[in-house]
Amino acid sequence: MEEVTPLDTPKRRIERRYFILAALVVLAAVGFRLDRSRHAPLIYVIPESYVGPVVSLFDQPDGVEPNHTKDGLEVRVPENGIVKIRSNPTLGYSSAFPKSTVVFELEKRDGNRTILSEAVNPWQDYDQNDNPHWKVGIRDVRGNLRTIPVADQAGGFVFDDFPDADKNRPMILWHESCQDRVFRPDWKTFTSGEKSAEELHVPPCGEFVVGTVNHIRRWPEWMFLRGKGKQEKLGVSNPVYTSIQQLVDEANARVVRKKAENIN
User: Fold this and answer.
1) Which residues, at least 6 apart from 169, have a Cβ–Cβ distance to it below 8 Å?
2) Chain centroid offset of residue 226 CA
3) pLDDT exceeds 80 at position 11
4) What's the chain's average pLDDT?
């Protein structure tokens, strides 16, 4: 006759404990995977010593995976400013950054971090009499925008109307997509509209510049990336990149020149 274990015995209690423990382990593993796949902000960690352009290239086989933290997906900006990321995560918000899907943190030498604001390019705003006025702005990580009227003067630097205190603090400028950099030898088929970024397999990318307004306005041309239409309009002969390697080589050369000419 088969032996039947009573419902409430030490053996039954031990079996139930093992079952509950196993279930908790499975739930924790599932929860961990869900947490890692949850949409979160992309956080650029920028060394305090870094100034200059930054380019992020996504879907790169030789790229890094962002570090998952409670605040978002962290990537570090290397010395040459070229950030290669293996994946192309869909971004979202976190409790720390409920208003921004991209965050810029300046890491000081002692390890402490400060969040950088973004300079916003000029736009036209209309007053109550429907008259247009040019303005620039500074946006913080919470989405607050401080608008600054642009003086009616010819020439000058785009952010000359910032208050002096803002001109001397590090911030992010010209944060935008960089698919028009193309990174292919047949880049003219893109700029002419003959082929799309998808047809040419142009990698998803973003770019921005790190620095203070007072320093940036005095930088030599080689401190900037090449290939924007606005440069063409100014008569600057600066074609786009024919490969990612060309971008990297230029960035590495920029590191050497920055050190030689003490640009920091």
Assistant:
1) 212
2) 19
3) no
4) 86
Q: What percent of the chain has pLDDT over 90?
A: 69
Beta bridge partners of 30: none
Least confident of 100-109, 180-189, 247-256: 180-189
Token digits of residue 130:
């429907």
Cα gap 223→220, rounded to integer Å:
6
pLDDT at 151 over 60: yes
**3-12, 64-73, 171-180: lowest mean pLDDT where?**
3-12
The better pLDDT of the pair 186, 9 is held by 186
DSSP state of 83: E
**Strand, coil or helix: 226:** coil
The CA R_g of the chain, rounded to the nearest whole Å, is 25
Q: By C-alpha distance, which of 153, 149, 167 is closest to 216?
A: 167
Reported for 157-165, long-range contacts at CB under 8 A and 24+ positions apart, including other chains, are 157/213, 157/216, 157/217, 158/121, 158/122, 159/119, 159/213, 159/217, 160/213, 160/217, 161/136, 162/119, 162/136, 162/138, 162/213
Report residue 221 CA to chain centroid gap. 23
On whether the CB atoms of residues 110 and 102 are closer than 8 A, the answer is no
Let me know: does 247 contact 181? Beta carbons within 8 Å: yes
Identity (one letter) of the amino acid at 205? C
Is the distance from CB of 167 to CB of 158 less than 8 angstroms? no
The set of residues, in sequence order, having a beta carbon less than 8 Å from that of 47 and lying 6+ positions away, is 76, 77, 107
Tell me the C-alpha distance between 31 and 161, whole Å: 49
Distance of alpha carbon 23 from alpha carbon 31, whole angstroms:
12
Instruction: Report how far residue 3's alpha carbon sits from residue 201's, in angstroms, rounded to the nearest whole number.
Output: 68
